[in-house]
Design goal:
The structure is a single chain. With 236 residues, this protein is α/β, with parallel strands linked by helices. The protein has one domain: P-loop containing nucleotide triphosphate hydrolases (Rossmann fold, 3-Layer(aba) Sandwich), CATH 3.40.50. The chain contains ten helices and eight strands. The strands form two sheets. It has a five-stranded parallel beta sheet with strand order 2-3-1-4-8, with helices on both faces. Helix 1 crosses helix 10 and helix 4 packs parallel to helix 6. The longest helix has 16 residues. The radius of gyration is 17 Å and the shape is globular. The relative contact order is 0.17. The structure holds BIS(adenosine)-5'-pentaphosphate and magnesium ion (MG). The site of magnesium ion has 3 residues, from helix 1. The site of BIS(adenosine)-5'-pentaphosphate has 32 residues, from helix 1, helix 2, helix 3, strand 6 and helix 10.
Length: 236
């Protein structure tokens, strides 16, 4: 463990630092849980979808190209995504403390590239958030996001305090452009074809932990943290 870790509060049992991937189908709660894990382990949350949405908001040339893929529910080509993640992982926070990768890898080619990027170290654990398809469809239909800062809401369970206005930054709270019926169907198809093979790929490498992603948010977080800590402490 590097000596310059920014630790949790004194006396906290949390051992900061972790190299984590969160897998799961669309709406499984990857982003929701990744934010919590990032705070818990004091590591950056690296979400490829968020990176692309920020590029789209900025209106950059890259964002214009990314928008075509995202709005249609298609995957951004591997070489582009791998380049983005490789660059981000060279930053000091990620290279020294670790990371929570959310939405990457999602093809076997991306998983192989990640393994090469990380050598000689490796991931601590890959969390596979397991949620039935019927439940993710309900979650995606009720998801709302802030168009400025990306904060996540859901109606009616966790709406912004003022309807349509973000609690965090005052931005507009809207439905995500790829939460249309057609794009969701395409994203779930691509999950089955391109991403679900990663479950066995990581299982064969003894890195996979499948966690029940249903139930209250705190309970899901507790299940994930218990599993990560068991592995970090070498109990698995
Ligand atoms: P990305 O942004 O990663 O989207 P996704 O994979 O479709 O997943 P979501 O963000 O929709 O779901 P989530 O699992 O994060 O769920 P959330 O926490 O929001 O990628 C978008 C696009 O970018 C891709 O389609 C592709 O075009 C491109 N892209 C990104 N990465 C790529 C890559 N590696 N390669 C190629 N292309 C790439 O939760 C969903 C809702 O459920 C929320 O409202 C939340 O509040 C609620 N919720 C969460 N947990 C619970 C719970 N326990 N109970 C009840 N509700 C819950
Ligand atoms: Mg997400």
């Amino acid at each position: 463990m590097p000596s310059d870790l920014i630790g949790a509060a004194p006396g906290s049992p949390v051992v900061p630092g972790a190299r984590l991937v969160i897998l799961g189908k669309q709406g499984a709660g990857k982003g929701t849980q990744a934010v919590r894990l990032s705070r818990h382990y004091v590591v950056p949350h690296i979400a490829t979808g968020d990176t692309f949405r920020a590029a789209i908001r900025s209106g950059s040339e890259f964002g214009v190209i990314a928008k075509r893929y995202l709005d249609a529910g298609e995957l951004v080509p591997d070489d582009v995504v791998i380049g983005v993640v490789k660059e981000r992982l060279t930053h000091r926070d990620a290279s020294h403390r670790g990371f929570v990768l959310d939405g990457f890898p999602r093809t076997v080619g991306q998983a192989e590239a990640l393994q090469t990027i990380l050598e000689p170290s490796r991931l601590d654990v890959v969390i596979n958030l397991d949620v039935p398809t019927a439940a993710v469809l309900t979650r995606l239909a009720s998801r709302r996001v802030c168009s400025s800062c990306g904060a996540n809401y859901s109606v009616p369970d966790n709406p912004p305090k003022v309807p349509g206005i973000c609690d965090v930054c005052g931005g507009d709270v809207v439905q995500r452009d790829d939460d249309t019926e057609a794009a969701i169907q395409r994203r779930l198809e691509l999950y089955e074809r391109e991403t679900s093979p990663l479950v066995s790929w990581y299982s064969e490498r003894s890195l996979l932990a499948t966690i029940d992603g249903t139930g209250p948010l705190d309970e899901v977080t507790d299940r994930i943290v218990d599993e990560i800590d068991r592995r970090k402490l070498g109990a698995v």
